[in-house]
Amino acid sequence: xxxxxxxxxxxxxxxxxxxxxxxxxxxxxxxxxxxxxxxxxxxxxxxxxxxxxxxxxxxxxxxxxxxxxxxxxxxxxxxxxxxxxxxxxxxxxxxxxxxxxxxxxxxxxxxxxxxxxxxxxxxxxxxxxxxxxxxxxxxxxxxxxxxxxxxxxxxxxxxxxxxxxxxxxxxxxxxxxxxxxxxxxxxxxxxxxxxxxxxxxxxxxxxxxxxxxxxxxxxxxxxxxxxxxxxxxxxxxxxxxxxxxxxxxxxxxxxxxxxxxxxxxxxxxxxxxxxxxxxxxxxxxxxxxxxxxxxxxxxxxxxxxxxxxxxxxxxxxxxxxxxxxxxxxxxxxxxxxxxxxxxxxxxxxxxxxxxxxxxxxxxxxxxxxxxxxxxxxxxxxxxxxxxxxxxxxxxxxxxxxxxxxxxxxxxxxxxxxxxxxxxxxxxxxxxxxxxxxxxxxxxxxxxxxxxxxxxxxxxxxxxxxxxxxxxxxxxxxxxxxxxxxxxxxxxxxxxxxxxxxxxxxxxxxxxxxxxxxxxxxxxxxxxxxxxxxxxxxxxxxxxxxx
Amino acid sequence: xxxxxxxxxxxxxxxxxxxxxxxxxxxxxxxxxxxxxxxxxxxxxxxxxxxxxxxxxxxxxxxxxxxxxxxxxxxxxxxxxxxxxxxxxxxxxxxxxxxxxxxxxxxxxxxxxxxxxxxxxxxxxxxxxxxxxxxxxxxxxxxxxxxxxxxxxxxxxxxxxxxxxxxxxxxxxxxxxxxxxxxxxxxxxxxxxxxxxxxxxxxxxxxxxxxxxxxxxxxxxxxxxxxxxxxxxxxxxxxxxxxxxxxxxxxxxx
Lengths: 546, 254
Ligand SMILES: Nc1ncnc2c1ncn2[C@@H]1O[C@H](COP(=O)(O)OP(=O)(O)O)[C@@H](O)[C@H]1O
Ligand SMILES: [Mg+2]
Known about the structure:
heterodimer, A: alpha/beta, D-Maltodextrin-Binding Protein, domain 2, MetI-like fold, six-stranded mixed β-sheet, five-stranded mixed β-sheet, 20 helices, 55% helix, elongated, disordered N terminus, disordered C terminus, B: 254 residues, alpha/beta, Rossmann fold, binds adenosine-5'-diphosphate, binds ligand 2
């Protein structure tokens, strides 16, 4: 492993596909989910199960999976235009697709879930700094390597005590979880190893002194150290690792085609040219590609990246910068709101049904409902989401991310709403049911016209509070590849190295979305209070007297 | 004497092995007002609740009009349509509770106008007209749009009577309709019941208002310890009770 790692605790992203044009390396568009409530409902009704037709036609897009959150230089959102995804792997994918005569289509997927996503059929291949290891090679097939790199130590400038890996004994060293670097560090006694989910966080901790050194793939070190005046790389190359394109084992034809395309790119010099543009062509690559001719390309993409990161900013620039995040965050916020609203509506309906069943159905059903409620309330939402999204496909039920997210949240909250309703219904005096029955209503009519309407009034305030809680809990669905507000935040933060400012912006958005509902809860409470009813009487009276 | 609209025979009911009704035999004549009296805990409420199926009895037989419920050893004789009969019974027998039990989320008007629409599918217009007529009758026309908690106890109980009447029952049962009221509000409720007497509806009233029972009721039934001890003409019972238990009970009131 190596490379583009997800940011702590927030892997995933959207199942959004983006067509990418031929060779132009920067023409990729970020997911443009034209979310609307209508789309949500549509997803709900139609996209229950997503089928991926795997036609053999040459015009079928070549879908490749990667994690744009992993950072530069693999595939990442263009700091100048967060709507675009750029990176050397984007250019390799485009070149391969062009040679195969198919349009390339990028599918965002969190790094952790790339292999399951491939097996799930979400995309045809993985290009995401995936190191070829024996473990992985048992599960999926790898193309020939398209890049060779090594591990590199980085320290703070001015720290002369660490000049190589050997000097790290007794020090605190950060690396990426599950990477070759981690294996190297752990093989050496006396090093306090801290493993991270995301590269950015590790280098930030190096800057602020939490770490003495960081050991990561050379290209990661390069892209994180170069823009930081306070950091430097030290020591010689450690280890050797190869990135390969991951393909399903049974897809032997695609494997052969990809290998052919890579071969063509190597012999024509196109691959070298891409790597040089990104400033990552090393001697090691020269050895592997048997190409020791002097370089002829300036690392323009690398320089561009550095310029974008180092651009000194005036206050006005910063404001403009933050304003430029708003569309992406706003899109995330819309998804969050949509998702939460649909989930809550479902949760309330289901919760009412559960409460009524638990109170009024035959004993066996009552028991079943009680067990369901306790089970749901006694297990973490995160695990429920994983079960629904990654577990159910093993039982043949494959839900789209949106549907899985709504369902997961709805099922979870239905248990809480059921308890709300149960408390509400139970607090209606028994004599109300008797009065309704005495008037000749059936039990169901009594519930529908007499008991439940009274319970609803009691339940609206806690229900609104639950909705606000759900709104915030919805951030968890980023783990099942939904790009909502929290995911948008972590994506933006990881490319702009700004967890504070963008974090405050995202928090403010959650706050703003929740605010109307807080007020709604207050209003509902007031509306159903006896004092307010006195106010209503005038109107009702006219209606009754007509 | 008029047709007997209610016939109860051998009615027994116990709660957790404790007998509350120990063999009630009782006839109620159609279109009359029957006052059911007796000391607290003697089973009056339980008897009324058996009459409209809110309580399931153990033994005996209840007939109301053409509907008949019969129980034997806690099992319904007519098991297969016991539920249907109970439901139909409630259509024929209305109930007014001590604590009114109006629906607090509906206006007074809706309390009266909606149940017929829900239960009988009476057309909206008809139900509205009928509700206004009944509100007028119980003197609450101007309270139509108020919610129950904005009415006095007496007004609430009158609204509850109107709500029961809207279902057009043949029989109306009252379980201590004035016991929860301030003394000053009792008469307005009794007045409504008095007015209804003679309009064709059969009323069975559990009450502690002995003056009302004596002056208005067509018949008095005195219960003691789960049994009907004495029944008859108010004048006779009040002036010359036959049973010592009746005499002792009445002494406390008169
Ligand atoms: N649901 C019940 N469960 C147990 N005991 C009851 C229940 N309802 C009534 N009883 C008992 O039955 C007896 C008669 O009650 P009730 O019919 O309410 O008397 P009354 O209305 O004449 O005062 C009382 O001793 C009361 O405690
Ligand atoms: Mg009683």
